[in-house]
Write a structure and sequence with these properties.
Order of helices and strands: EHHEEHEHEEEEEEEHHHH
Helix content: 25-40%
Largest sheet: 9 strands, mixed
Number of helices: 8
Shape: globular
Strand content: 15-25%
Structural class: alpha/beta
Radius of gyration: 18 Å
Number of strands: 11
Length: 253
């Protein structure tokens, strides 16, 4: 499997030596699930956009300190590429900022959360089970989070797959080919702890302490890593709607 990584930010210089960059984290997670997985990184935040949608089994958009509503050329160019992927029915997974930009690019809305920072380990309820959600062990999923914005309104053809009290649209699917996730399955607890401490001037003491305390809880990173690769594999076997319609109208089929 070959995955195109749409990089939208760099890890802070103070943390990158210990934890690696965002593409490193995603590669480590998915190679822990399947060591054969290959990647090509496109530094979208530096203006490096893909020139084709073909040649990849799936695409992943990373998180970012930027917001989906920010006025930056590279964000609009990436939004255009997301729409191109959706129209071409190429599989796409958006993580955090990527989830939010996917929603906005496809007709949804993104807003600042009225509850402030979403930070730490969050337990989320799966609202709808999908065929690619394997292994399926529980109706709850626990992942790390670090965000202020979140999806406020689904795009057309969007549906909620998971929610929690802090983030009502925590995981969504738009059509067959676009999956958005507010949490960070690629983050380690050590990285999020260092990130919280690095941002202590921007986060209240109470929210920081609650987030650090939550890091004692287990997280389902490998479960979500399996689901992401299964999502890509599952789409290999889905016919294009035009093909499905032709088959249904063909006598004897």
């Amino acid at each position: 499997m070959k995955i195109g990584l749409l990089q939208c930010d760099d890890v802070a210089p103070a943390l990158i030596e210990r934890h690696g960059n965002y593409p490193d984290m995603i590669q480590a997670l998915l190679r822990a699930v399947d060591p054969r997985t290959e990647f090509q990184v496109f530094a979208c935040h530096q203006g490096q956009m893909p020139d084709r949608t073909e040649g990849f089994d799936g695409w992943i958009t990373t998180g970012s300190k930027c917001g989906a509503n920010d006025d930056a050329d590279w964000i609009e160019h990436l939004a255009t590429f997301i729409r191109t992927l959706a129209q071409a029915r190429r599989p796409l997974v958006g993580i955090c900022f990527g989830h939010q930009l996917m929603a906005k690019a496809l007709g949804g809305q993104v807003e600042r959360s009225p509850l402030g920072w979403g930070l730490g380990a969050y337990t989320t309820t799966i609202e709808q089970q999908e065929p690619w959600m394997s292994p399926w062990e529980s109706d709850q999923l626990q992942l790390l989070a670090s965000h202020q914005d979140q999806v406020a309104e689904l795009p057309p053809q969007g549906r909620v797959l998971a929610r929690n009290g802090f983030c009502p649209i925590y995981m969504m699917q738009v059509g067959d080919t676009c999956l958005g996730l507010q949490g960070h399955p690629e983050f380690t607890r050590a990285y999020l702890e260092d990130l919280v401490l690095l941002r202590q001037d921007r986060i209240s003491h109470e929210r920081r302490q609650a987030a650090l305390h939550s890091l004692r809880l287990p997280v389902d990173n490998l479960v979500m890593g399996n689901w992401i690769l299964n999502f890509f594999r599952h789409l290999r076997h889905l016919p294009h709607p035009a093909q499905a319609a032709h088959t249904a109208q063909t006598p004897g089929v």
